[in-house]
Design a protein that fits this description.
This protein is an alpha/beta fold and 516 residues long. It has a single domain, classed as Alpha-Beta Barrel (TIM Barrel). It is 42% helix and 13% strand. Helix 4 runs parallel beside helix 6 and helix 8 runs parallel beside helix 10. The longest helix has 28 residues. The N and C termini lie far apart (50 Å). It binds beta-D-glucopyranose. Beta-D-glucopyranose binds next to loops.
């Protein structure tokens, strides 16, 4: 933290010389790719025996959970159009692709007693198509689409879900592990628990900010660890892959140099990144998080802390369970704690326990997503923080991206700037010793952006969701990214015109026969 303001000064200077800076280049084995998730792109919600996830069920029951009343029933239709997705990756020169598996496409009831052969065929086809095109698959086992049956039984609030998840993980290791060498157990436990079990704004709409948020995170960590041990004991020797977890983290900066703001910033690190990485790297939750929740619980008359502690056995079980860390990073925040924060949050709640507030700098380019603004120096600081705090683990940026609202506009210049400056920051962090080995832009395509539906677009490729054929068209950002991947360098003068390129866009029929 201490060097942050010096780093900022150096960075500002560097930006001024952006066009000729560093001379650094992506090494040829650096995995530049793109990312998606099953519910957000696949569609085929009930195709070929797929069971329902909690997202399927809730959005059918309550369409107004989503601002534009859409859902993921068809989305980009990647269930049918996966070959087009791989063709787009190939066209960009992507070296890797991160996608997630739909639990209920593989296990329609959630349980491992019945495996849907069509689910296995679909992912086999996708994986084989990627490998045939020299694209490395990174597979997320769980990206929020819990089977509805388990969700109705209490989902991530119950201890039983850990074994159900572990059974599912075993099935997918056995089915795909001969070809998949990078597994991500869970996507963003923090965001998932915040919205699904804390605020109750995403399925299964459980509003439990005092305990549910913490119990969800605890069970996701135990599930992650269990999958890791299963992989270790039953598959690693034969399959020789790696397994890690993806956590989300925006970069926090103290809003002033007051002790309160600096302390609040440390608490932000503890409640976000530390909640997940500390048990994995250090064997327990961060002390400052444990202390704050225990003190608040005591004040509120609870007999014990609302943050259930791990037993010694559980601590040992979780510690050391990652071969790499996946980071999803979008933005930075200023953090403060003063009298105005008192009474800001519901009591009891995890927000109140943490006891700080955040804001983004109004001068940073704003995306279409709430509280997401572009500030690349924060990315650099985050990468070096992880290096120092967690012993420089093997690191993949499993998501990073910038959203806009104009789905029809192929000139996504803000996203282009974001991509360039964030990749520049990554190169700098790499030069400063970060063990970052790959980067996945979010997203390859316009996706179903959860409760924002299709109003918010993250895609390198535009998807026309009003057209049944779901045509994909490269935006300027896709062309810029392609050139970065080809040359290994970031050229701020390269200015391709996406409208000229649409004439040669990849055109595929519904049956995946593609022509250029
Ligand atoms: C999630 C994605 C989401 C993205 C942009 C991440 O929190 O993993 O599913 O689309 O952010 O909001």
């Amino acid at each position: 933290m201490a060097g942050k303001f010096t780093l900022l000064a150096v960075w500002t200077l560097a930006l001024v010389n952006a066009e000729c800076k560093h001379g650094s280049k992506f090494p040829s084995d650096f995995l530049l790719g793109a990312s998606t998730a099953a519910y957000q792109i696949e569609g085929g919600w009930n195709a070929d025996g797929k069971g329902q996830s909690m997202w399927d069920w809730y959005l059918h029951q309550q369409p107004d959970l989503v601002s534009d009343h859409t859902n993921g029933d068809v989305a980009a239709d990647s269930y049918h159009l996966y070959k087009q997705d791989v063709a787009l990756l190939k066209e960009m020169g992507a070296k890797s692709y991160r996608f997630s598996l739909s639990w209920t496409r593989i296990l329609p009831n959630g349980t491992a007693d019945y495996i849907n052969p069509y689910g296995i065929i679909y992912y086999n086809n996708l994986i084989n198509e990627l490998l045939a095109n020299d694209i490395v698959p990174f597979v997320t086992i769980y990206h929020w689409d819990l089977p509805i049956g388990f969700s109705n039984q209490g989902g991530w609030l119950t201890d039983e879900i850990v074994d159900k998840y572990a059974d599912y993980a075993r099935v997918v290791f056995a089915a795909f592990g001969d070809r998949v060498k990078h597994w991500i157990t869970v996507n963003e436990p923090n965001i998932h628990c915040t919205f699904a079990y804390g605020y109750g704004l995403q399925p299964p709409l459980v509003k439990s900010p005092a305990t549910g948020y913490y119990d969800c995170g605890r069970n996701l960590l135990l599930a992650h660890a269990k999958a890791y041990h299963i992989y270790n004991k039953e598959f690693r020797v034969l399959q020789r892959g790696k397994i890690g977890i993806t956590v989300d983290h925006d970069w926090p900066m103290a809003a002033s140099d007051s002790i309160d703001d600096i302390d609040a910033t440390e608490d932000y690190q503890a409640f976000h990144l530390g909640q997940y990485l500390d048990p994995i790297f250090r064997g327990d939750y961060p002390h400052r998080m444990v202390d704050r929740v225990a003190a608040a619980s005591l004040r509120q008359g609870y007999n014990s802390s609302r943050l259930r502690s791990f037993t010694e056995e559980q601590k040992d079980f979780i510690k050391g369970t990652t071969d790499f860390v996946g980071i999803n990073h979008y933005s930075s925040n200023y953090v403060y704690r003063n009298a105005s924060v008192v009474g800001m949050y519901e009591v009891p709640s995890f927000d109140d326990d943490a006891g700080y507030a955040t804001f983004t700098n109004p001068s940073w380019p704003e995306s279409a997503s709430p509280s997401m603004a572009a500030y690349a120096p924060g990315f650099y600081d985050l990468l070096l923080y992880i290096k120092e705090a967690y012993g420089n683990p093997e690191l993949y940026i499993t998501e990073n991206g910038f959203s806009e609202t104009l789905s029809e506009d192929l000139y996504d210049d803000l996203k282009v700037d974001y991509l360039r400056t964030y990749l520049d920051a990554l190169l700098d962090a790499k030069a400063a010793g970060s063990n970052v080995q790959g980067y996945f832009f979010w997203s390859l395509l316009d996706t179903f952006e959860w409760t924002f539906g299709y109003e918010i677009r993250f895609g390198l490729h535009q998807v026309d969701i009003d057209d049944p054929a779901r045509p994909r068209t490269p935006r300027k950002s896709a062309l810029v990214y392609k050139e970065i991947i080809r040359s290994g360098v970031i050229d701020y003068n390269y200015n391709p015109d996406p409208y000229l390129r649409t004439k040669v866009k990849i055109n595929c029929t519904y049956n995946n026969i593609c022509n250029k």
